[in-house]
Specification:
With about 300 residues, the protein is of the alpha+beta class. It has seven helices and 18 strands. The chain binds zinc ion. The site of zinc ion (ZN) has 5 residues, from helix 1 and helix 6.
Length: about 300
């Protein structure tokens, strides 16, 4: 049987929020089977649990924000996508995440530090079948026309693969790879995706700061690009780091659905909001998906059984 996974022990991290600039502490803890990923705001007078699912997403303007039931007036956690991506990349089904502020720490701007933390806690197999959300019919969301066109699509696939294309019309970004594909059967999330950092343009920084966003951003946790070039002295970690970060984000955004997907995801200039729209469109069409388990591991898509132990 392909089993659910949680952590073996608890692990902690301290950092600052990318947007709030606020210091925050995370404690990642084991959780029983069928719990899913649950954030807990432990800084409030009464701790508030926020289970991650499609409808708990309440804001996607700069990052993915969740609250109980998606209620915009309730306690929130911002910028969950890189940590969610690491959980998806390691095939973790059940984790409690205690957090002492409203925003997940940005650490180095990628998911590599979260992968390291989760792996150092160890991964435990649980006595419950791992559940997958299998896409049965193509689902697409689309927005804008011409230069403003963007879209995202899920299609049936026996496995999980993603293809993403960007087009920033910017000299520093355009000379890097604009399209990337990643298939989970490769078992190489940590090597090929996890190290890709978030990025920002200096021209947007003033605007963001005037809206109280990006207060924790620096060259230690983001690729910073002016009108012509990358300003970080070490340059890029991958030749196509920009588009790879978009895949990293998409893996985190899509894991919000509560299960690993069995699907092919393709996107053009999509982002957090559109990825969530895609999940909501999928959920709304109940004959377009089902939940499956694999009693016989040999019938599971290649790479799924080895995900975490392979590292
Ligand atoms: Zn990101």
């Amino acid at each position: 049987m392909l089993q659910q996974r949680t952590l073996k022990s608890l692990t902690r991290a301290v950092g600052v929020g990318l947007h709030s600039g606020q210091r925050v502490e995370l404690t990642l803890r084991p959780a029983p089977p069928n719990t899913g990923i649950v954030f807990r705001r432990v800084d409030l007078p009464e701790p508030v649990d926020i289970p991650v699912n499609t409808t708990s997403v309440c804001d996607c303007r700069m990052a993915t924000t969740i609250s109980p039931g998606g209620d915009p007036g309730a306690a929130k956690v911002n910028t969950i996508e890189h940590l969610m991506s690491a959980c998806a990349g390691l095939g973790l089904d059940n984790v409690y995440i205690d957090i002492t502020a409203e925003e997940v720490p940005i650490l180095d701007g990628s998911s590599a530090a979260f992968v390291y933390l989760l792996q150092s806690a160890g991964i435990e197999l649980q006595k419950a079948p791992k559940k997958f959300l299998r896409v049965l019919k193509p689902i697409e969301v689309r927005d804008g026309e011409g230069r403003n066109l963007k879209w995202a699509r899920l299609e049936p696939y026996h496995g999980y693969k993603l293809a993403f294309e960007i087009d920033f019309d910017h000299p520093a970004v355009d000379q890097t790879g604009q399209r990337v594909e990643f298939d989970f059967s490769s078992g190489q999330y940590k090597r090929d995706i996890a190290r890709a950092r978030t990025f920002g343009f200096t021209k947007d920084v003033e605007l963001m700061r005037s809206r109280g966003l990006g207060l924790g951003a620096s060259m230690d946790n983001a690729i910073v690009v002016d009108d012509y070039r990358v300003l970080n002295s070490d340059g890029l970690r991958y030749d196509d780091e920009f588009v790879k970060h978009k895949i990293l984000d998409a893996i985190g955004d899509l894991y919000v659905v509560g299960y690993p997907l069995l699907a092919a995801y393709t996107a053009y200039k999509s982002g957090h909001a559109m990825n969530n729209q895609l999940l909501r469109a999928l959920m709304d069409q109940q004959d377009a998906w089902d939940i499956v388990t694999f009693e016989d591991e040999a019938k599971a898509p290649r790479g799924m059984a080895e995900l975490a132990p392979a590292w």
